[in-house]
Amino acid sequence: MSTLTAGRDAQALHRAATLGYFGWLEHTRAAGGCTRPIRLTGTLAAVEPGTGRVLAERHTDELPDRTLYKACGNRRAAQCPDCAWVYAGDAFQVVRCGLTGGKTIPTTVAAHPVVFATFTAPSFGPVHHRHIPRHTCAPRRRCDCRPAPCRARSTAGTCPHGRPAACFTRHDADDPQLGRPLCLDCYDHDHQAVWNHFSGELWRRTKQAIERHLTAVCRRRGIPHVQVVTDSGRLRRVPPVRVSHGKVAEMQRRGAVHFHVLLRLDRVDPHDRHALVPPPAGITADDLDAAVHAATRQITVTTPPHPDRPQGWPIAWGEQIDVRRIGTSDGDVTDAKVAAYLAKYATKSTEVTGHCSTRLTPDTVDAYADPEGDHLARLIDACWRLGRPTHHHVTRTAGKTKDRQGDLDTTPNVYAGLRRWAHMLGYGGHFLTKARRYSVTFGLLRDTRAAYRRTEHTDTAGTAGTADSDDTAGTVTVGTLAFVGSGWLTDGDALLANTAAAQRRERQRVGREELAHEAWSGVAA
Question: Please, is 233 exposed, middle or buried when counting C-beta atoms within 10 Å of its C-beta (0-12, 13-18, 19+)?
């Protein structure tokens, strides 16, 4: 047994032997399983909602460890598996409620036309890849089909740098060469970094183009616009249909993001513009499919000038645009499968590329960026180099500002975010986004879970610790808290809290299976 393990076990035994161990274990339940919980100190008050009267008050000095533990909430499985597990469950509910309804979303949305579209990045140079022309396996999770040669080219020859332009290897699924360029010097790392950075703007314009295409279809088929009342009380004519989306960004092995998007057709109700009602009978999923393909061919974004490329970079989608229909029962693409698929990727980031770091600074970037290094080092170097501050000399003429190149003034530019998101290879968007009316929000799910936890054990003070009687029932807990640190106090505390959390999850899993078995037995009987 190593010294670290022995010390951790001794700390765990010392904690378990204390008089208030079970109270401490219940106190840390809200953060149990978290890798680096947040520690807070301050006061917690139970306030009567109607009058604002403080019914009870308690300081964290009265709680175990004299602090309040809160889970970090990190969505990345590589950083905190337990918080990512909770986030994935919420993401599943957000995605699926937009397909089948539930949790304040009407179940009638299940009848709305829905497509599942995948938007990929263009090619920035040939990379090693794995392709299976025809699957003969039944379960894809245990696929053992033989892949085709990577890049079999009999007349490819060599690139301008003298490297082979062909690859005859049949790569395994875990081959580290997958996603790596055949020639690092031929690959356009600058363009890929910029594409990642502007991909969010490309998606925004693409969705606008999809809605314009559908509006034109409605006009040709005689479906008129509708008048709705805005928040200011004015009447406004709007298109009769709108597109609600749920989008997940996935990082490919080459370090370029692509988007998996659920697109649902809704009709605009003139009496309640927030209502979710089916689209007119003249608009179908075929029209939504055609709108997606038309928009991807039409939309191209040209970035602003950069000192390294005065003409800017073209930002467009790749050639592989896949659009599939969603079913709610049997089939290859069902609502449950799509929701589980998107929830899984919502907890991932750049791990698939082999890079996983926190935000880079001038002191730490040299450990990851190298213009002569491997593929990832060159991508990070491109982000850092292209995101450098640009200098402009500002002069005023007749009350107007005129900019020209100079060294007197530093102004922000649209490429500055590349440095902030260099650890994400340039992509600065959230990995799971949705339209406002697509589904429920993460905040609603978190509030519902917090309310359930507060009422789950009424005879225990729990983490709130404001009162132990029924006098505070129906009150609102108001905290005046300050951050004091992150992480467990000892490795032994982490072992005990995380083990208890794992046991609770296992009991929940077994309970769900038992309930499902009893329900199935009742149906069979």
Answer: exposed
